Amino acid sequence: MPSDPEASEKERDPMTEAAPPVPETNPELVIITGMSGAGRSEAIHTFEDLGYFCIDNLPPSFIRQLVDLTALPGNRIRRIAIVCDIRGQAFFEQLAGELKRLEDAGIPFHLLFLEADDDALVRRFKETRRMHPLAEEAGGVAEAIHAEREALSSIRGRADLIIDTSELKPRELRRQIKDRLFSESLASSLLVTVTSFGFKYGLPIDADIVMDVRFLPNPYYLPELRDHTGLEQAVEDYVMGREETAQFLEKWESLLATLLPGYLMEGKSHLAIGMGCTGGMHRSVVLAEETAQYLRQLGYQVTVGHRDIGRDRERQ
Question: What is the rounded CA–CA span in Å between residue 250 and residue 234?
């Protein structure tokens, strides 16, 4: 049966092709733009520290393609931050249209706009001795700043967060971004590693916090528990059933609940906690697991490991 030439032509016509499917769970997408010299580099570093996949100076036409890549099997990128700015010259003019495409496709995003007054921007360009992207065609730094502000006026009106950095230090800008954009979900941006270890094998060299739990009774001295580990129910029941353990956990968890938000506000993106006992096989293992479970309940991303859990067995 002869094919329909008109139907075949429609099949080849890219204008009739269906749009790429929207991922069932969209990534967290932040688009950073604004005035040159207003702190975009510091902003992208902030998002990088928060665990975002970051791209600087991305042509706007690639934004949707980047989002679509997160729908591919095996993809683990769930947070994306990109900078689109006037350095892209003609490409930057596409940004408004690309934002509309995202909205039409139901893809949520934050648009962060950074600005500063003319005096602050001129001073920063003089201090860094860098050329404004529009300086050559505009005829000078002041003229380039004016031209850029005009070009960005419509995009600025679409931003859901505008930060004036005229009087802000880099550290203050980082804090404003976290306070104003992530006040409800900041905990999930801190990656916490909890590791049990044995003091007789040395301290973990990367630990930010070390807790010594050798004050608790040692299951090693009970013949029925000696060859078991803190991952086994009998050892866990013994350690967690002690009154000393309950008193310790009450104060330890209170301390963690106080410390971790402070680390976050100071810009820390990864925290390593070491829980140590004598051999790293019993008490520290149980309490590392308990600590990890508690921190997950608070909303932190936590991984747990047991560095020395089998070393005593190997030495026997």
Answer: 22
- Top-level class of domain 25-183: alpha beta
Q: Where are the domains of the chain?
A: 25-183, 188-315
Alpha carbon distance 290, 304 (integer Å): 10
Token couple for 219:
């299951």
Beta bridge partners of 36: none
265's tokens: 């506000």
Digits of tens for pLDDT over the chain (316 positions)? 444 444 444 444 433 444 444 445 667 899 999 998 899 989 998 888 777 889 998 888 899 888 888 878 877 788 899 998 877 666 677 888 899 899 898 888 999 999 999 999 999 888 887 888 787 777 788 888 888 888 888 888 889 889 999 998 888 888 888 777 765 555 666 789 999 999 999 999 989 999 999 999 999 999 999 999 999 999 999 999 999 999 999 999 999 988 888 787 676 778 999 999 999 999 999 999 999 999 988 888 899 999 999 886 666 5
User: Distance of CA 46 to CAs 30, 150, 183, 268, Å?
Assistant: 12, 27, 14, 10
Record the tokens describing residue 193, joined without a space.
Answer: 């590693």
Measured distance CA(96)–CA(131) in Å, rounded: 26
Sequence letter at residue 139: G
Residue type, 87: R
How far is Cα 156 from Cα 120, in angstroms, rounded to an integer? 19
In angstroms, rounded to a whole number, what is the distance separating the alpha carbons of residues 273 and 252? 12
The two three-digit tokens of residue 301, written as one number? 């991303």
